[in-house]
Amino acid sequence: MKGSIGFLTFNRTKGKLYVYLTQALRDNGKKKNITLYKFGRLDNALERMYAWRDDFENKFPAELLNLGYDWNDLHDWILSLETGYSKKGRKLIVAEINV
Predict the structure, then answer these.
(1) Domain ranges (residues) in the chain
(2) pLDDT tens, position by position, 65-75
């Protein structure tokens, strides 16, 4: 995707870690995060992403396609969740958790 508008965020609820695709906006000088897509629990999200990568044409959500995301973005997300580091080298919260 040309100039990605979103980034992965994580939320821990009742001992489970959930993955979201989020966009940051500034409104009157205040930062506001908007959730673009909910991937679900970390373990399920990773399995779902593997399935999407294996059959991208049929399984990748139309909602994400409409936002301009493609196979390369999906591959980056999977790599980030597996390694615990973002594409730009920042350590993610998943680096602290054994999947």
Answers:
(1) 7-93
(2) 999 999 999 99
Nearest to 20 by CA among 12, 32, 28: 12
Q: Quote the CA–CA distance of 74 and 87 in Å, as a whole number.
A: 12
Distance of alpha carbon 3 from alpha carbon 56, whole angstroms: 21
**pLDDT digits over 48-95, tens only?**
999 999 999 999 999 999 999 999 999 999 999 999 888 888 888 775
Could you tell me which of 88, 87, 85, 14 has the C-alpha nearest to residue 96? 85
Q: Count of CB atoms within 10 A of residue 41's CB?
A: 14
Q: Please choose, from the candidates 1, 51, 85, 31, the residue with its C-alpha nearest in 3D space to the C-alpha of residue 94.
A: 85
Q: What is the pTM of this model?
A: 0.84
